[in-house]
Amino acid sequence: MVQACLVCSRVPEGSLAAWAARADMEQAEKPSASAKKHVRLQERRGSNVSLMLDMSSLGSVEPIQPVCTPRDITLQFLRTSSHLLRREELQQRAQSLTQLQEEFSKIPPNFVSPEELEIPGRASKDRYKTILPNPESRVCLRRAGDQEEDSYINANYITGYGGRPREYIATQGPMPNTVTDFWEMVWQEQACLIVMITELQERKEKCVHYWPEEQGSYGPFTVRLRGLSEAAGCVLRDLSIQLEGECRQVKHILFPSWPDQQTPESAKPLLHLVSKVEETLQAAASPGPIVVHCRMGCQQLRDQGQVDILGIVCRLRMDRGGMIQTSEQYQFLHHTLALYASQLPEVGSH
């Protein structure tokens, strides 16, 4: 019925003439009043009048095309965006604040809406309402079994350099009610290194003190401090984590020089942090993931002599929304990698 209504205005003139002639003949027969009433009722119902519709007059009909949702557009941008910079281009690019601001402003944040995480009790484990783990890459605690609320932690696996899966874990600073979950994640993922790039307290609490001064118990886990040192703005702790009869070694590096939504005063301490991370990984027996900013760019510069900072940030946001918070931080990453590139030997030199 809907289709007939849409195309009634397209009935050919010949068909209309035939219908009019037939109507004249019916009128000449002079039906009774009751018959007229019956016919009119049938006509309104469409049961006694047949229209010849010429469908060719509609022309060709385009096939239905799939509609791209905003989410599809976001993911397509994050998957395909790239801007390779050679080593000699990095310094100039790092000084182009306007261009970097424009480039950064086009990167979709890829934040998650609460409706995508319908997990009982989830909200009590989130430090911020707007910073939620992307469902596709979120870490799930396995001890929970079928209890979905016990499996939740605000953390995501992050793809590493060269597409290596689960090379990092990005997580919020632990809260008083999530410290045990944090150490469970460290144990479950066999993490050999924890990198913390914030102070415990800035304008407000950013993270609870989740490690012990000497020894502490967190649920079934016992964590002990084995050693402490400081170097180039970093505080390094050697920790052990024990569950029942098994004990593992974990490095903890605190880098407090990166203030929230701002940038450090100098790039050198950050490069020192990257160096410490590399040393730790070379000595580590555990294959588990780590958390650290900027390391992928250093790896790409060493291997290829060029770096795709735009592509790196897009891949980070594919796994966890909002990674790299401001255009100033985006510029600082360019500046840091430009400094790192200047310290590398020239390609082909020995």
UniProtKB/TrEMBL annotation:
GO CC annotation, single: cell junction
Enzyme type, top EC level: hydrolase
Domain of life according to the entry: Eukaryota
PROSITE patterns named among the record's database cross-references: TYR_PHOSPHATASE_2 (PS50056), TYR_PHOSPHATASE_PTP (PS50055)
GO BP annotations, alphabetical order: signal transduction
GO molecular function: protein kinase binding; protein tyrosine phosphatase activity
This protein's UniProt keywords: Hydrolase, Phosphoprotein, Protein phosphatase, Receptor
The protein, known as: protein-tyrosine-phosphatase
Organism: Merops nubicus
